[in-house]
From TrEMBL, chain A:
The protein's name: Pyridoxal 5'-phosphate synthase subunit PdxT
GO aspect biological process, one term: pyridoxal phosphate biosynthetic process
Species: Halobacillus litoralis
Quaternary assembly: In the presence of PdxS, forms a dodecamer of heterodimers. Only shows activity in the heterodimer.
UniProt KW keywords: Glutamine amidotransferase, Hydrolase, Lyase, Pyridoxal phosphate
EC numbers on record: 4.3.3.6, 3.5.1.2
PROSITE patterns attached to this UniProt entry: GATASE_TYPE_1, PDXT_SNO_1, PDXT_SNO_2
Family: Belongs to the glutaminase PdxT/SNO family.
Record field: catalytic activity: aldehydo-D-ribose 5-phosphate + D-glyceraldehyde 3-phosphate + L-glutamine = pyridoxal 5'-phosphate + L-glutamate + phosphate + 3 H2O + H(+); L-glutamine + H2O = L-glutamate + NH4(+)
Lyase among keywords: yes
Residues at which L-glutamine binds: 47-49, 106, 134-135
Gene Ontology terms: cellular component: cytosol; glutaminase complex
Native organism taxonomy: Bacteria, Bacillati, Bacillota, Bacilli, Bacillales
From TrEMBL, chain B:
E.C. designation(s): 4.3.3.6
Name this protein carries in UniProt: Pyridoxal 5'-phosphate synthase subunit PdxS
Gene3D superfamilies per UniProt: Aldolase class I
Domain PdxS/SNZ N-terminal residues, every copy: 7-212
Pathway assigned in UniProt: Cofactor biosynthesis; pyridoxal 5'-phosphate biosynthesis
Gene Ontology terms, MF aspect: pyridoxal 5'-phosphate synthase (glutamine hydrolysing) activity
Length: 196, 294
């Protein structure tokens, strides 16, 4: 059975667990870095990126998560998770995990008042996907290796680079599990190739 | 086509705050301390509840200058309080772009009967509640998030515990009822029937429920999380303590790792004095903020 961990320091981690389980994998909440050894893929959920980052530092998660990714194990970042995965953050020198070759802008669509939901097409994953954007970031630019999966109003809101997946919206807040299922498949694939 | 202010967008905002600490602040400097400590949001106020209590008189929405100063100082969400039933204060805060409005019994109510019809707003609202009747009425008025009322500004956790236990126990009771018994439960609690049916089915409230009103130490925060809170508001507890930055960090960690008692013990060491606190029996009934609305 494929086991997917959801970083459970702060944010909407229980919704992700529900979504992972609905997609046929086992979901576990990851609160300690030692738990990374027991999972095949990791989701970094939405929440407050500054709060999550502080707790990542406090519990020495930064290097172990980077190492996890460098072993070829898939990581999926949603909203705050996308910010944490990025290699460049607009207006900030403080890069977090820096695993994905993307440049992000925080709170890019505005404050809560401007938060919205909209239907998107996610390339190769889902058409007419209802995406919930909450004080969301967007991706301003991607490297050559990164594939753009979705745009909203011209801005990149979902991307994939090898075994890294990121989106600005919250797939865990709806009953549509297609994007999480896509990630579960990525993890199953990587399990097979890492076992060889 | 995109839509703002939907139920999903407003409730979802509160979902993102789960497992976090929302801190009361009165200026930019405090807001930065809170953000630095890992707060998930700040509540911009003119005075913390303990000082509102001490000052007496009518407590109103904060001066917009303070709210704006806090909004400019931090990148985390900023909440602000409007008086219960004060439609105009709420609209002003919405127009300023605050991320969440607390229709709060900490301020002097503008309307002793009616709450704001919150589903008319694009901005989400949080409201206090003591039981399932208050909780479901606030949700049906459009609140996207709830919190226990507790007894604000006292540094005494006893009322927040009472309110959290009350709601949890009422949810369990509701689940034990047969379908044909729910209507009487609805009548007795003044609770919307269809919402009760939904809660009975899910075994939980349809919105996030934080603890608030009296949290003064890391162990208080951990206690409330143990009792089923989704996160905590800390009002006077942080900036009325001796060492706010350290207190703020310790409360954030205790909220994340609420069942790791060894850790909570460690981070409670040498924190200095918590806020002084008040015994409930010293409050007369008109000093009890929790009784200001139903």
């Amino acid at each position: 059975m494929t086991t997917i961990g959801v970083l459970g320091l702060q944010g909407a981690f229980r919704e992700h667990i529900r979504s992972v389980e609905a997609s046929g994998a086992t979901g576990v909440v990851v609160k300690k870095k030692e738990q990374l050894d027991d999972i095949d893929g990791l989701i970094i959920p939405g929440g407050e990126s500054t709060a999550i980052r502080r707790l990542i530092d406090k519990y020495d998660f930064l290097e172990p998560i980077r190492e996890f990714g460098k072993q070829g194990k898939p990581i999926f970042g949603t909203c705050a998770g996308l910010i944490l995965l990025a290699s460049e953050i607009d207006g900030s020198y403080d890069v977090h995990l820096g695993l994905m070759d993307i440049k992000v802008r925080r709170n890019a669509f505005g404050r809560q008042r401007e938060s919205f939901e909209a239907d998107l097409d996610i390339d190769g994953v889902a058409d007419q996907f209802t995406a919930v954007f909450i004080r969301a970031p967007y991706i301003e630019g991607v490297g050559e290796e990164t594939k753009v999966l979705a745009r909203y109003d011209g801005h990149i809101v979902a991307a994939q680079q090898d075994h890294y997946l990121a989106c600005s919206f919250h797939p865990e807040l709806t009953e549509d599990h297609r994007l999480v299922l896509h990630f579960v498949k990525m993890v199953e694939q990587s399990r097979k190739s890492l076992a060889m | 086509m995109s839509q703002t202010g939907t139920e999903r967008v407003k409730r979802g905002m509160a979902e993102m705050q789960k497992g976090g600490v929302i801190m009361d602040v009165v200026n930019a400097e405090q807001a930065k301390i809170a953000e630095e400590a890992g707060a998930v949001a700040v509540m911009a106020l003119e005075r913390v509840p303990a000082d509102i209590r001490a000052a007496g008189g009518v407590a109103r929405m904060a001066d917009p200058t303070i709210v704006e100063e806090v909004m400019n100082a931090v990148s985390i969400p900023v909440m602000a309080k409007a008086r219960i039933g004060h439609i105009a204060e709420a609209r002003v805060l919405e127009a300023m772009g605050v991320d969440y409005i607390d229709e709060s019994e900490v301020l002097t109510p503008a309307d002793e009967i009616y709450h704001i019809k919150k589903d008319d707003y694009t901005v989400p609202f949080v409201c206090g509640c003591r039981n399932i009747g208050e909780a479901t009425r606030r949700i049906r008025e459009g609140a996207s998030m709830l919190r226990t009322k507790g007894e604000p500004g006292t540094g005494n956790i006893v009322e927040a515990v009472r309110h959290m236990r009350q709601i949890q126990s009422e949810i369990r009771h509701l689940q034990s009822l047969a379908e044909d018994e729910v209507m009487v439960f609805a009548k007795e609690n003044g609770a919307p029937f269809d919402l009760l049916m939904e809660i009975r089915e899910e075994g939980r409230l349809p919105v996030v429920n934080f603890a608030a009103g009296g949290i003064a130490t890391p162990a208080d925060a951990a206690l409330m999380m143990q009792l089923g809170a989704d996160g905590v508001f800390v009002g006077s507890g942080i900036f009325k303590s001796n060492n706010p930055a350290q207190f703020a960090r310790a409360i954030v960690e205790a909220t994340t790792h609420y069942d790791d008692y060894k850790l909570i013990g460690e981070l409670s060491k040498g924190l200095g004095t918590a806020m002084k606190g008040m015994e409930m029996s010293t409050l007369t009934s008109d000093q009890r903020m929790q009784e200001r609305s139903q």
